[in-house]
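Dear colleagues,

For the upcoming journal club I promised to circulate an example of a predicted protein-ligand complex. I picked one with 6-O-phosphono-beta-D-glucopyranose because it came up in last month's discussion. The inputs are reproduced below in full, followed by the predicted structure.
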Amino acid sequence: MSLPRTAALSAGRGGRPRLLIDAPAGSAEIYLHGAHLASWRPRGGSEVLFLSRDAVFDGTRGIRGGVPLCAPWFAKGPRGDKQPIHGTVRLSTWRLRSVTSRPDGGVNALLALESDGLRFLYEVGVGEELTLSLSVRNNGDAPRSVEMALHSYYSVGDVTAVTIDGLEDLAFWTLAEGSDQHEPGAVVLRGVTDRVYDVPATGHTMTVNDPAKGRRLLITGQGTPNSIVWNPGTETVGTMTDLADDEWPTFVCVENAIIRDNAVVLAPGQTLSVGTRVVVEPLD
Ligand SMILES: O=P(O)(O)OC[C@H]1O[C@@H](O)[C@H](O)[C@@H](O)[C@@H]1O
């Protein structure tokens, strides 16, 4: 496979193969382990994604930060009986299928994975905007239940000062508060936050306002009727060996997903696609 001059395959952290993209419209780093986007910078801008300094790159677990892919299930699956947590694809080594330059100065990278009768394709569009498109096809001969999440970790200046627009009055559930919770106004993160929202599946935008970095992130889902907002806070950060104790204020996970009651049963030959688009703007 030939690569454009704006991309190179090389050994990254832990000697793991990763694709480096340095194109006129933006740069990125994608590990083949988990098809894990670990970095994205629009040209002239700063890093958008969070990556823990304690992230593990030995292939035994998902990389803490960036954009882990959760599939073919999320957490322990719709019935709570699946392992490993968040599915197998973030632990699998993907194949790089193609890397192409775009006329707008961006680059598209396409990765593929065949796993347990499912064929995954993942396109990462790197430029002034970030586009992530993940599809799964049931290549087996029996129906398969599938969940997927683009588990994005965004770098923020101070998570306690962050507000998230676009989720006001939408129903969410948490383990602590139960289901069908509602909150008026923007989401403010106070302590451990782990919410699953029901949102319009396509074209719904959430805005992460980050005054400490002076920017906002506009995150728009495609085929994703759930959004997850997660930050471990001081309460749970200590239980995580691949996240440093002082890092929780510096990121927020805002995930586009299709999980739980929205899990899809794919007939043989059927495909399910989800996506996310991220745009960075200065905060006025
Ligand atoms: O530690 P993991 O498996 O990467 O999961 C991190 C978090 O991922 C979030 O999506 C979940 O809602 C949280 O419950 C979970 O703690």
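Two points we might discuss: The chain has a mean pLDDT of 97. Residues 7-282 form a domain with the Beta-galactosidase; Chain A, domain 5 fold (CATH 2.70.98.10).

See you all on Thursday,
B. R.
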